Each structure stands twice: as structure tokens, then as C-alpha cells.
Amino acid sequence: MVKYYFIILATLFTKISLGQFLIARDTISVIENNYVLKMPWANGINCSNVSNIDLNFDNKKDVVAFDKPTLFSPGRYRCFINMGTVGQTKYVAAPDLSYAFPPGSDWSILLDYNCDGKEDIFCSVNGGIKIYRNISTPSLGINFVLERAILNTDYNPSGPPSVFPIYASSIGVPGIADIDNDGDLDILTFSSGGFYIEYHVNESQEQGYGCDSLIFKLETGCWGKITEQGCSVSLNEPCSPKPMPFNIIDHSFKDNRHAGSCLLCIDANSDNLMDLILGDISCDHVQFASNTGSVTSALITDTTKFYPNYPAVGNTTRIKMNNFPCAYHVDCDGDGKKDLVATPNVSGSENIKSMWYYKNTSATSTVNFQFVKNNFLQDEMIEVGQNSFPVVFDYDGDGKKDLLIGNYGYYSPTNLKAQLALYKNIGTPAQPSYSLITKDFANVAVQNLSHAIPTVGDIDGDGDIDILLGTSSGQVHWLEHTGVVGNYTFHNNPFTFTTTSAEAAPQLFDIDGDTKLDLMIGTKNGRIAYYKNIGSTTVPAYTLITNFFGSVDVKGNINVFGIDGYAVPFFYKENSATKLLVGNINGQVFYYDVPSVITNTCNLIDADVNNYNEGAQAAAFYEDVNNDGMRDLFIGNGSGGLSFFSSKALNIGFPENSLQNANDQITLFPNPATDRLQLKIDALEFETGTLFLYDIVGKEIQASVIQSNSQTFLLNNLNSGIYFAKVVLSNKAKTVSITKKVIIE
Q1: Over the range 516-545, which residues count as b (16 or more CB within 10 Å of their CB) and which as e?
Q2: Long-range pairs for 589-594 at CB < 8 Å and ≥24 separation?
Q3: Pairing label, strands 369-373, 356-360
């Protein structure tokens, strides 16, 4: 199986604890339409804020998309490392790097405020702006520290100071750029009580601090002399009275706050004046606003809804999405010129094609954005729209396990339509390879379901595999296998029940040991309902036993999610014991022991299995797919993609047959290194050995035979950066395999 990239986490090579599984991030080849996806397990993207940052210290700008899976879920950073040459959009996903970013919600954009060449984080907090400073180094890895818990401004700079937080709607995105061309970052944001744009100027340069300080004052409450309302911009508006500060304590403007707009500042015609690209909630387009004023007095004199086809050159594909498109100025192809990426800023809009990429083809410092594709990055990954619920089973009886993925829905102009995506295993039992057969397996789309959460099993005893689908209505539908491969009959809620807390995330599992498949249904309130199969082996029938099986409750943070949990269960047998994994709204995967007396309380082993959190509304499926006798883990999430963790992955840690203290007995030095690396092995006898060196994305750089307990390896003029050295030692009794992070300067 092809190995994936490595992660920069201090916990990577720690011993396996009771609640951890011997798996690590891995990959399986995936083919769609005769094309091999470059990053199939990249977790999907729906509605996101897009930024540049150098993630691997190679002096090339990579891409981070801060994805907001739903209105009720926390955001997740999706990291992509630029592997292309100049002018080429070629990326590899680096999902483990997302763990180095601080938690976020609502919106998050990356910009360098202190001119150190490293992008910092500006993100939403309590209707204001929070800032994290980027302190990343090659030896430290990606790292951020809190710089400002909330950003303040002086609303009365000409008189007694009136210092309050800068208001920034949690629904929109403020415009953060160097508006006055003095080298520090200023802020444009809609006022909390109206439709005017406030301009908060950063006085870091004026006060002699260079660009590394955050000292703001209100310059004007009507920048550009425009108002925005009802998807239209009004010009030459008189300035309103001086805006009052937004008080996050008394929320005095709660009823009149501007609902939400995205402001992108961009000097489109290279006149040193910032123009705007505005997106607004409930609008299906962006507006370009041309600034013809001055640096000290902005004046918007023209707007258009036909952008980026303004002025009219090249192709005619303008930004137009179902709801709330926003634009981001980022370099996508590494040519040093910033391109344009447009994405929806809310869920329920475009999802499988929600990253619209426009290349900047201008030969000057102006911009000329030409449409390239509407699925930038998404075209290289498994992407099934809103949410993903994986199931692995042999759908065609060829002895190999195929992949079925349910979802909340694919975008359509009227509503999200739930479907099933089927990927057939065209590899071998030991080395699977998935090829897309259809994204509407069994014609589920015609049923107009909201959510299609699948579970599989032979519930009618006819020797083939049936499919049950849970929905957001709390009902369970039956796709009965007709005996012909891929052919199913749809039965609408045949068991005539509705869960008390919709939605229904079902699993067929014999929980009571009577050889009949019961229904264990995760529900929206974070609990699991147990419906016992009281029918026969050929005619299933279900009756509710309890809505609170095992006292399992995986609600999220009540202050964030209220009563919601969105439990998605996966029961399985480990020898004679029953185990349970449960994904929840926050992206956690819980691990329980299920008692032999099923009326007793389940024992919580771990509330965060292996510390994996791949995104909100986690859905776990734990099954051996590579025929090594050990289970592998698929995790779906609200962004419509998948992650895969394998028992065969390179960086699992110590296998059971390795020595107790091997990590202490194998030393690599110096670290950081320059042109050579010394290996020292203490008190370990081995017959064969190899030292593998990998770069940060898992590409093997060199492999060298280990011939003695003390040996020097030349580093072949490698570039500075982070690498991983894997030492493998074997004899007749055992194998030792450890991996260590190495810094090369």
C-alpha cells in the first residue's frame, strides 16, 4: 500500500494507550472517470475562507482552506502543500497539519500583520476579531500563539479615548489590507448598527513601531461613501453620524446589526487605491466596487454584479452561486501573482463544486482573472457534497470489500439531494484500489431524501446484502436486494417508526446475540436508540427497547451546539467482546466497551480516539480492508470527504513484537544536521537494517543499508527543512521500527 505523508506532532511516536488503536494515516488508490486522484483522502471542502501560507518551509506559498461544514459545527483547517512548478496547480493534502492550527469557527483568514514573512491568523470571536501570531520555524513546525483575544479600536481618536472591540460580523468576513499604503494592515468592516463600512486605520507605522503592532483608530464610519443593502450598493451616500462602538457585553446593536458581508480589498487597476469585491448573505453574486477617490478619502463611483468579467475581457464566467459567494486573493499556481478563488460562505450552497478558481493572467500589476475550474483542489479528492457516511462491504460478491458513501446531499438549485456513492474495489484483498462506479447508487436521488446514512446486512436471510438508510426525518428506509448485483427495491419506512430525536444514523448489528440483526440508531441528541429485531430470520420487524442505550451520550459543547450531538455509532466484535465507536457533531470519535449485560451502562474508554478530529459530524467505520487481520478506520465528516487510517501505515509506532525501549536505544545525531547524519544503536542485535529518509509529504528521499551499530550517512546536499528518518532492524525473533523527526539546516 502506498504510504502517505508524515505529521508534525509531538505525540506521533508515543506508546499506544488503552484508548488508542494501532493505525495511522494512510492512503488507498482511488480512481474517478479513469483518473487517479492525487489526494483522495483529503476530507472534502464545502464553504471556506481561502488563504496562502508556507506550510513546509520551502519558500513556496501553500494553500489553507478554513472550512465551515455547517452553521452549527466548528470550522476545520484544510491544508494543501504546493508541489508544483511555477504556474502549475499541483498540491498534496496535509491534513495532519490542521492539528497545528488553533480551534476556529465562523471565519478565519491568514495575513502577515508584522512583516516577518509568516502569515498570522485573523479569525472570528464574539462578533469581533481575534489574532494568533505565527511563530513557526523548521525546528518547531507550524505553531501559533494568541496575540489578541479581541482586537480593539479607538472610536474617538480626536478626543478622550473610547476604546472598544472592532465589530466584525460572525457571518461575514472583514476586509483586512494595507488601505493607506503605509506598510501595516488596516481593517474595513460593516458597522454593527447599519450598512456603512467603517475604516479602522492601523497606526503602528505612524507611532514608530514599524508594522509589528496592532494600534487601531476609527478613521471614518463611511468609507467609500457607499451603503450595501438587499444585494445592491448605493453610491454617494452621505456619511451617517459617527458610529457607536459595538459593546460585546450589552450587545446594544443586536437587533440592527448588519447581517453579514465579505469584503475583499484588491487594487485591481494598480492605482494604489483599494477597490472592493463584496459578497452578501442571501445574494447569489459578488459585486465589484471601483475606488476612484484618494488614499485619504475613498470614493466608490462604479459597481458591477458581473465580476470578474469587468471590464469585459476574455471568458464570461462570472461569480454566481446559490447563496453568499465570497472571494479571496491568493496565489494558486506559484507564479507570484495572486489569483482569485470564490467560495460560498454558508452551507446549503454549492458543495462538490464550491472552489471557483480564476487565474490572474495579467502581465502587469493589474489583474485579469480568467476562469479555470469550479472545483479547485476538490477535483483531486473524494467529495460527496454535504456530509459523508462510509460503509465498507462486498457489494458484488467478488470477495473484495467495496466502499459505499452516503451523504446529507449534493447541491441542486432547489435543495440538497441525498445520494449514495459507490466505489468498487478493483485491487486485491490485500491491496485495495477503489474506482467510482456511480454517485447515485440504487437511484436514491429520486427519493428526495434529506440525509442518506447507510448500513448494510442480510436482514431477510436470502443470502445477499440489503441496505438500510437513515434520514433526517428519523425514519429508516429499506433498499432490498433483488438478487441481481446492484439492483435494489426501495421500501419507504417499512418498519413504521420514527426516532424520537431525528436524524437517524442506523447500524445493523446483533446486539443481543440471537443471530438476528438489530437496529442501533444514533440520533441528533447524541444518544443511541436500540430497536430489537423481533421478526424472523426472513421477515425482519423492529421494536423500540430504549432511546438511551448504555447511557451513551456524545453531545457536543452545550454552549456551542445546544442539545445536539449527531451520534453515528459503529458496533463491532473484538474476540468475544463488543466494542463501540461513536462519532459526534464536534468531530470526536468516542470509544466504549459494551457490557455483556446490554441493559448495563457502556464503559467510556476514550472520548477522542487517537486524538483524531477530521471535522464536524464524524462518522467512523472500522473494518479490515487490507486483509492483514487488523481493522482499518475510515472517518467521514461534514465537508463531504473521507480520511483513512490503516493498520499497515508507515508511522503507527512500535509494533507488538518490537523491543520495549527501542526508541532510547537508537540515536540519530546531530539534530539539526547539515551534510551528514550519525546513527548509533545501543545493545540491539540485528541481522538486517535499513535507514529510510522521507520528506514532509512522505516522499522517500533515500534508503541506505545499515551495516553496523555506529554508522555515518551522507545527506546528499538536501534542502533545509523537516525530514523523517525511519530505522528498521530485523532478526529472526523480532523487528524494530522507529521513526524520528530530523531537521536539516
Answers
A1: bbbbbbbbbbbbbbbbbbeeeeeebebeeb
A2: 589/618, 589/620, 589/635, 590/552, 590/554, 591/19, 592/550, 592/552, 594/511, 594/550
A3: antiparallel
3-state secondary structure of 305: coil
Q: Of all residues in the chain, what percent are helix, strand and coil, respectively (each to 5)?
A: 5, 40, 55
pLDDT band at residue 118 under the 50/70/90 scheme: very high
What's the rounded Cα separation, in Å, for the pair 151 and 30? 45
Amino acid at 109: I
Sign of CA dihedral 472, 474, 480, 481: positive
Contact 611, 11 (CB under 8 A): yes
Tell me if 345 sits within 8 A of 279, measured CB to CB: yes
Q: For a pLDDT cut of 90, what percent of the chain falls above it?
A: 70
Q: What is the per-residue pLDDT for 282?
A: 85
Average pLDDT over residues 213-235: 93
The pLDDT assigned to 240 comes to: 67
In which order are the strands placed within the sheet that holds 286-291?
261-266, 275-280, 286-291, 300-304
Mean pLDDT within 704-728: 85
Nearest by Cα to 302 from 311, 293, 294, 290: 290
Return d(Cα 652, Cα 729) in angstroms, integer. Answer: 16
List all residues 6 or more positions away from 482 whose beta carbon is below 8 Å from its beta carbon.
Answer: 488, 489
Q: How far apart are CA 121 and CA 146, in angstroms?
A: 9
Nearest to 226 by CA among 282, 155, 276: 276
The torsion angle over the Cα atoms of residues 169, 171, 172 and 176, rounded to 10 degrees, is 50
pLDDT at 716: 74
Short-list 141, 263, 290, 136, CA closest to 198: 263
Per-residue pLDDT, 732:
60
* pLDDT for the residue 315: 55
pLDDT digits (tens, 9 = 90+) for 458-495: 999 999 999 999 999 999 999 999 999 989 999 999 99
- Position 303 scores a pLDDT of 92
pLDDT of residue 715: 85
Mean pLDDT along residues 392-414: 93
Beta bridge partners of 237: none
- Write the CB contacts of 232 (distance below 8 Å, at least 6 apart in sequence): none
- Phi first, then psi: give them for residue 644, nearest 5 degrees: -135, 130
CA 169 to the chain's CA centroid: 22
Q: Are 215 and 209 a contacting pair, CB within 8 Å?
A: yes
- Output the nine-digit C-alpha cell for 495: 418498519
21-30, 326-335, 734-743: which has the minimum mean pLDDT? 734-743
Amino acid at 528: I
Q: Kind of pairing, strands 108-111 and 91-93?
A: unpaired
pLDDT mean over 271-275: 97
| DSSP H/E element including 561 | helix 558-561
Closest alpha carbon to 441 in 486, 485, 490 = 486
The string over 416-444, giving b where at least 16 C-beta atoms fall within 10 Å of a residue's C-beta and e elsewhere, is bbbbbbbbbbebeeeebbbbbbebebbeb
659 pLDDT higher than 50: no
